[in-house]
UniProtKB/TrEMBL annotation:
PROSITE patterns reported for this sequence: NOP
Gene Ontology biological process terms in this record: spliceosomal tri-snRNP complex assembly
Organism name: Porcisia hertigi
Pfam families reported for this sequence: Nop (PF01798)
InterPro entries per the UniProt record, alphabetical: Nop_C, Nop_dom, Nop_dom_sf, NOSIC, Prp31
Gene3D superfamilies: 1.10.287.4070, Nop domain
Record protein name field: Nop domain-containing protein
SMART domains given in the database record: NOSIC (SM00931)
An example Gene Ontology CC term for this record: U4 snRNP
Transmembrane segments: none
Amino acid sequence: MDEGFDAHVSTVTLEEIPAYEENEVTLLSDDDALRYDSVTEVTKLLRSSYLSGMLRRLSDYEQKTTRGKNSIPSDDPEYQYVSDCSSLVLRIEVEKSRVHVFLRAQYSVRFPELAIFFSDSVLYAKVVKIIQNNTDLSSAVEQLDELIPSQLLVVVVACASTTSGRDLSQEELNRVLEACEELENLEMAKQTFLEYIQCSMPLICPNLCAFLGTGITSQLFAISGSVAKLSIMDPADIARLGSRRSNDSGIAIKTTGFLSNCDLVANLPPQLRPKALRLVSSVTLTLARIDSNRRAPTNCEGIRERRLACNRMRAWLDPPVLRGAGHNMYERRGRKRRRVN
């Protein structure tokens, strides 16, 4: 864990925050973001006693995980902690989205065109932290070259010299830099919990992790609450988990669920993805029941199902076999007509 992040968490004022609820996400628009004077009014997760308590418990459970634990049953207190960590990661993503909207709205006064080039909020914050009020980016080219491709760097440098924005005052600049720092700290907190989840999730549902990967499995685990609740869902409901989210602009959008980001679905052509999603969701339900009942203590079933799914999807990509009288490999049976001389 980063020392700067530890110092930041230990010095902030502690406040209680509620647990993550997907349906209770407060969206933030650009107009709303301009009404706030500080990023601390937009997000309070880093200054909460909930996050501090989760970090304190994390060090204890990390030591237990490194001792060679074989599994984490549902009655183990660590099982609930892993579920809380997964929910917290989703909550951090929501907070990052809110901070990104605030940062973009505040810095658009100086460089409104910059947000067009960066969809990643963390990368956008790092670039803003380097550019600040500078119009001539010749002195910052080396720093920017480490973050963005050279082709994009040329465009950013050209736009910075011809931008329609104005210079920020010292108060406005401090507000922007504070938002950049907040976004980077949220990303560090997210990575801290993700590392623990990736180590612990295979101990809870090994077959699901072998089939979907730890990232997608942890997202499904966080939304459903437990493997037992996931095992009693309908495959169509599993496919829709995580579909109601908000994008970085703060606008509520109807998106595909978490399973659509699985490599088994995302790597196929668009016309085959709905069919693959139905297959993956049905197999996910089967493996969730296996992991919930502990019928397979190892990940052998998940590996086998993934191999079978890959073989079926590979068959979908094969060219269709033309069938009919003109394409039969056997000759048509029938009496041959005699040749008349």
